[in-house]
Amino acid sequence: MKLRRLPDTELEVLKALWAAGGETPRAQLEDALAPRGWASNTVNTYLARLTQKGFVSCRRLGKSNYYTPLVTREEYQSFEGKAVLDQLFGSSLKGFVASLTGDGQVEAEELDELQRYLDDLRREDKP
């Protein structure tokens, strides 16, 4: 399946599914999304769209529908991160990091954490 960017509302439903973990009854999803103030029909519409787009599977069991995410949080984050990087920075990772650090709001421990991550990536690349 080729991933594509989701509208924020559908992404919120998918995030609720990821948080629930595994196959989840619709009623549980509605409870998790209740703070948004969406009507039951609205949640149903978003679930139908996610199913049609291949992000979610739906299984009928008795009188209830159960939903399972078909895309992991990590897969979607990777896709979305690359899309933002391409769109805003022309795939320049250095430009992206510079935009985050340019205003001096990045703490030294965050930079240290980033450096450790980069060091780990280099070690993984070496045979």
Mean pLDDT: 90
- Biggest sheet, strands in spatial order? 1-3-2
Q: How many helical stretches?
A: 6
Principal-axis shape equals elongated
- The proportion of residues forming helix, as a percent range, comes to 55-70%
Largest sheet: 3 strands, antiparallel
Strand/helix succession = HEHHEEHHH
What is the strand tally?
3
Identify low-pLDDT runs.
Answer: none
Through-space gap between termini: 32 Å
Q: What is the gyration radius calculated from CA atoms?
A: 19 Å
Q: Based on helices, strands and strand pairing, what is the structural class?
A: mainly alpha
Percentage beta strand:
5-15%
Tell me about this structure.
This protein is mainly α. Helix content is 61%, strand content 11%. The protein has helices spanning 8-20, 26-33, 40-52, 73-89, 93-101, 108-125; strands at 24-25, 56-61, 64-69.
SSE diagram, text form:
Layout: H1 8-20, E1 24-25, H2 26-33, H3 40-52, E2 56-61, E3 64-69, H4 73-89, H5 93-101, H6 108-125
Antiparallel strand pairs: 1-3, 2-3
Helix pairs in contact: 1-2, 1-3
Primary descriptors:
127 residues; mainly alpha; three-stranded antiparallel sheet; 6 helices; 61% helix
What's the short story on this structure?
The chain is mainly alpha-helical and 127 residues long. The protein has helices spanning 8-20, 26-33, 40-52, 73-89, 93-101, 108-125, and strands spanning 24-25, 56-61, 64-69.
